[in-house]
Design a protein that fits this description.
Blueprint: E1 2-13, E2 17-19, E3 26-28, H1 31-46, E4 54-63, E5 70-80, E6 91-97, H2 111-121, E7 127-131, E8 136-143, E9 150-155, H3 165-168, H4 183-198, H5 205-226, H6 247-265, H7 284-294, H8 304-318, H9 330-340, E10 348-350, H10 357-374, H11 380-384, H12 390-403, E11 404-408, H13 411-424, E12 431-433, H14 445-462, E13 477-482, H15 494-497, H16 509-520, E14 521-532, H17 533-537, H18 542-551, E15 552-559, E16 573-580, H19 583-591, E17 599-602, E18 624-636, E19 642-651, H20 658-671
Parallel strand pairs: 6-7, 10-11, 10-13, 11-12, 13-14, 15-17
Antiparallel strand pairs: 1-18, 2-3, 4-5, 5-6, 7-8, 8-9, 14-16, 15-16, 18-19
Helix pairs in contact: 4-5, 4-7, 4-8, 5-6, 5-13, 6-7, 8-13, 9-10, 9-20, 10-12, 10-13
Pfam family, one: N6_Mtase
Organism: Flagellimonas meridianipacifica
Domain DNA methylase adenine-specific: 304-588
Length: 673
């Protein structure tokens, strides 16, 4: 994890420019340059190599074996021995970076013509990387045994700063890399694409990948379960750096991973996820490749933004969405959660939870509060490093198991949400397959009964409700976050719609969800909901608005631009923040006019355009602004030692109005105190 501190500086960029992390120079945005920036960041934050020991576009000299003449070759990135001069004899890593269209077999730009040639020319360089954005190939150079030439061996990874190749092959190596920037997105995409394109499993590629992600998470959680008991932790989800190269090695990996999968299916931790008949149906070669990709990283140590974005990227691109369903952008989710500021004593629900984005964000929000409470003397990366300490994880897990709930009508999304919750810190058992509008009179009484028992247990543990008047979930939640399905294509059965008072005005699901959320909230409970603007503005929705005003106190209303949900769907929507009135307040509102201030705002920009491409802050003349940034992060050595490092760079800032709106809301609230 990293903490970035920004300060404005009068530096501007053209639309097609970026600033190099390594040199601070302005570069044209091209595929190869973008890929190189990702590699530099990866090698710095994940592998621990200092920027001062790197140099881009470094020229090496070598002797042409055919002519005996000295030739030159420019390599994209050279890494030198720590604190040594940038001379050819001190190069320890060579990195060749191409654009996405170049294949590793290309005769001029491929692996052999570039990386192998350069590594052969530099005696001191044992390891190298060839990357094209979507593929990463690690090589080791070894003598051929007779002293005439070199042999190159494929590796699944190469050692970072202070590591050896033997370190990577140790099953007791508990300190795997923490993914930086877009590394996890690329790993998930490479893995999914491999299954889809090479394993003949186009229909269930996502679910096969999901099974392996479950395995990886389970293996990481074993560390927290075994070490406190004095047991010696040894990874089971790992791949030796050369195991993929032989049939024997691939079989060993497959046996190890499949055995782990059977173990996790029988573990209480995942008892609510698997039915028991699931299997990993990949070839040994495919399984070894995917496991090699996933095993490099620690999923539990990754920030919620890194792993959440990576996970939701493959979920949204893979699962076919029902009409009217789409994922809420992460910046909107974060804004809505921050506005209601959930605490450890709050019971939270998303009645249309999808892949679990709101719930994971709530969990992370509370995790940060818990960590700060437990380690008040720490800040920045030193505090973030404690987010996944055993003590914090245990407290977060307890909170999640008793306080966070999700309902969704789509059984596939239920499983996807559970995986997201497992990555976020757990609480996955409280994700239920249920029609929220039909609850509690749904056609699957066993699932309804399971919900009711879980709520009853939650109340027993939290002791937050003295007099329980209903045996189900109604009236039990402090906070509700949701983006309900809406649109003309989403139909609600007449019998279900008739249960709602608002159905006399509209049977649209987004209208009925307002009343459903009201029923689920405690008196005084709060909700944050995404609604189409028609509810708030159309004349034929006047009665719906009056019902809302009679039953809720309006806390805030934020209009969103049409780009908010593009390119998924074009819809004009708003965010409404409401607080459920008590019975006395409802009665009082009917007898006399209410008078209170409501926070209202318009978000004109959300950090992206209509195509989903990022947009950045610009000056008055339209040029993109740069901000001097100081990124602080912890670099881990193989022995677990952590070193605080600082990287100074110039960064663009997304043009997103929501953070400023949130700050204005805080000022509004504080002015009322």
């Amino acid at each position: 994890m990293a903490t970035t501190i920004k300060s404005k500086e009068e530096v501007v960029l053209e639309d097609n420019e970026l600033v190099c992390i390594l040199t601070g120079e302005v570069k044209k945005i091209k595929a190869q340059e973008t890929n190189l920036q990702s590699v530099i960041l990866m090698l710095n934050e994940e592998y621990g190599f200092d920027l001062g020991d790197m140099e881009r576009n470094y020229t090496i000299d070598y002797e042409d074996p055919d002519t005996g003449r000295t030739k030159k070759q420019k390599i994209d990135l050279a890494i030198f021995e720590k604190d040594k001069p940038h001379e050819q004899d001190f190069i320890i890593r060579i990195c060749v970076v191409q654009d996405d269209k170049v294949k590793e077999t290309d005769k001029k730009k491929g692996l052999s013509a570039t990386l192998e040639n350069a590594m052969g020319a530099v005696n001191s360089c044992e390891f190298g990387l060839w990357a094209n954005g979507s593929s990463y190939h690690f090589l080791q150079k070894e003598d051929d045994g007779i002293g005439f030439d070199f042999e190159f061996t494929d590796l699944s990874d190469f050692p970072g700063e202070g590591e050896t190749l033997e370190d990577l092959d140790r099953a007791d190596r508990s300190h795997t890399r923490t993914p930086a920037n877009d590394s996890l997105i690329k790993v998930f995409k490479r893995s999914h694409d491999y299954i889809y394109g090479n394993e003949g499993r186009k229909k269930d590629a996502f679910w096969q990948l999901l099974n392996l992600i479950f395995c990886k998470i389970y293996d990481e959680k074993r560390r927290f379960m075994e070490l406190p008991n004095g047991e010696s932790y040894r990874r089971k989800f790992w791949v030796g750096v050369k195991e993929q190269n032989s049939e024997e090695g691939r079989k060993a990996v497959a046996k190890r991973i499949k055995s782990l999968f059977e173990e996790l299916k029988n573990d209480n931790l995942f008892s609510e996820v698997f039915q028991g008949n699931e299997s990993i149906d990949l070839t040994d070669k495919g399984l070894a490749f995917i496991a090699g990709e996933l095993s490099k990283y620690s999923f539990l140590d990754a920030s919620v933004d890194v792993k959440g974005l990576a996970y939701e990227t493959i979920v949204s691109n893979t699962l076919k969405q029902e009409a009217g369903q789409f994922f809420t952008p992460r910046n909107i989710v974060k804004f809505m959660v921050e506005m209601l500021d959930p605490k450890e004593h709050h019971r939270v629900l998303d009645p249309a939870c999808g892949s679990g984005g709101f719930l994971v964000m709530v969990l992370d929000h509370v995790r940060q509060q818990i960590t700060k409470y437990m380690y008040p003397e720490l800040e920045g990366p030193l505090l973030e490093e404690k987010y996944n300490s055993i003590e914090v994880n245990e407290r977060v897990r307890t909170y999640a198991e008793h306080s966070i709930f999700g309902f969704d009508f789509d059984p596939d999304l239920k499983k996807a949400a559970r995986m997201n919750m497992v990555m976020g810190g757990d609480g996955h058992a409280n994700i239920f397959h249920v029609n929220s509008l039909a609850y509690p009179l749904w056609e699957h009484p066993a699932e309804v009964e399971k919900i009711n028992r879980t709520i009853e247990e939650s109340i027993r543990v939290m002791q937050d409700i003295e007099n329980v008047y209903t045996t189900d979930a109604r009236g039990k939640f402090d906070l509700v976050f949701t983006n309900p399905p809406f649109g003309a294509k989403v139909k609600v059965e007449t019998e279900i719609a008739s249960r709602y008072y608002l159905s006399q005005y509209s049977s649209a699901p987004e209208v009925l969800f307002i009343e459903a959320c009201y029923n689920l909230l405690k008196e005084g409970g709060k909700m944050a909901i995404v609604l189409p603007d028609g509810i708030l503005g159309n004349p034929n929705m006047l009665s719906v608005r009056e019902w809302i005003l009679n039953h809720f106190k309006i806390l805030a209303s934020v209009d969103l631009p049409v780009e908010a949900f593009l390119p998924q769907v074009g819809v004009q929507a708003s965010l409404l923040f409401l607080q459920k009135k008590t019975e006395q307040e409802v009665q009082l509102a009917q007898e006399q006019d209410e008078g209170y201030d409501v926070f209202m705002a318009i978000a004109e920009k959300l950090g992206k355009d209509r195509r989903g491409n990022p947009i950045y802050l610009r000056d008055d003349e339209g040029a993109e602004l740069l901000f001097s940034s100081e990124t602080r992060y912890l670099s881990k050595k193989r022995n677990g030692e952590k070193i605080l490092k600082i990287r100074k760079e110039k960064l663009k800032q997304l043009d997103d109005d929501l953070p400023e709106i949130y700050n204005e809301y805080l000022q509004f609230i504080n002015s009322k105190i």
